[in-house]
Amino acid sequence: MKQKILVAREVFPEVLERLRQHFEVDDNQADAILGVEGLKVRLADKAGALTAATDPVTADVIAAAPALKAICNFAVGYNNIDLAACSRAGVMATNTPGVLDDTTADLAWALLMATARRLPAAERWLRNGEWQGWQFIQWLGSDVHHATLGILGMGRIGQAVARRALGFDMKVIYHNRTRLPADKEDACRARFVDRDTLLRESDFLVLLLPYSPESHHTIGAAELALMKPTAHLINVARGGIVDDEALISALRQRRLAGAGIDVFEGEPKYNPGFLELDNVALTPHIGSSSRATRMAMAMRAADNLIAALSGQRPPNLLNP
Ligand code: DGY
């Protein structure tokens, strides 16, 4: 008899087809948000699940799923999973590193360029019929070329963001818990600096830290005060890393030139203060959202689940 699994969010039919070759699949193609209570009900008789960053796999959820052996996130971030509770219950947890680096780096750059050259506000202005004629002093933005790019969190995505800066002749500095080996630094011509130097010297600061209690509001009023008033902040990691009130206040008072934000604390809710600002580019958590990458993420999660439930070590096990 096939083992039962849950696919907690809508995925591509090809992914379900593949999973159905191995398992009895309970899908959620209607894409209802299950939440803690929904997951408890749907996981009660399941051996495994494919979950997204929006699915709260809490200790309560795990306790309500006695047959559960594996939770396979189709995301690189896994702050939605209580890893300690998984380990206590003998549940394997996996994520999808590596397959979304370039797509997420591309989006970081899209936001960086959009905020540097004020694209969202300029487009709104044009659409509103406010363009009365070309002017020499109009919609002046910030130059990206030759500027200093700072990266906080220099994992695979950070390095992919840094490599793209070579074409813009940028100076690249970074801060990370551990310094990269010299060959990796050389590959993206990035220089390790302490956190305060990163904040002080960056013209564009890209946040790529994993979210955890330690990184909660790691960028708050004090950190923003160290940044140049001409600087731009880009967040494609997790909303909770930034104190949104402090960021909005800095942007409103032009103590910071602009921001490109893809992730929000408490999303899909976001601080309405963002909408009052004309110096932000806002996107709804689409960092990895290209068809090819989302397919690769879901297929990688399926690989992990198939391995886990057939007694093999899944390639991206988080809690060995
Ligand atoms: C990730 O992979 O963590 C992205 O944010 C999508 O959830």
Plain-language structure description:
- This protein has 320 residues and is an alpha/beta fold.
- It folds into 2 domains: 115 residues, NAD(P)-binding Rossmann-like Domain (Rossmann fold, 3-Layer(aba) Sandwich); 182 residues, NAD(P)-binding Rossmann-like Domain (Rossmann fold), CATH 3.40.50.720.
- It is 35% helix and 15% strand.
- It contains 12 helices and 12 strands.
- The protein has a 7-stranded parallel sheet, with helices on both faces. Strands 2-1-3-4-5 form a 5-stranded parallel sheet.
- Helix 5 crosses helix 7.
- The longest helix has 19 residues.
- It is globular and about 70 Å long.
- It starts with a strand and ends in an 11-residue tail after the last helix.
- The structure holds (2R)-2,3-dihydroxypropanoic acid (DGY).
- Keywords: NAD, Oxidoreductase.
- Belongs to the D-isomer specific 2-hydroxyacid dehydrogenase family.
- This is Dehydrogenase oxidoreductase.
- One of its GO terms (cellular component) is cytosol.
- One of its GO terms (molecular function) is hydroxypyruvate reductase [NAD(P)H] activity.
The computed structural class is alpha/beta
Instruction: Supply the CATH superfamily name of the largest domain.
Output: NAD(P)-binding Rossmann-like Domain
The helical percent reads 25-40%
Number of helices: 12
The number of E-state strands comes to 12
Shape: globular
**Which ligands occur here?**
(2R)-2,3-dihydroxypropanoic acid
At CATH's second level, what is the architecture of the largest domain?
3-Layer(aba) Sandwich
The radius of gyration is: 21 Å
The helix/strand order is EHEHEHEHEHHEHEHEHEHEHEEH
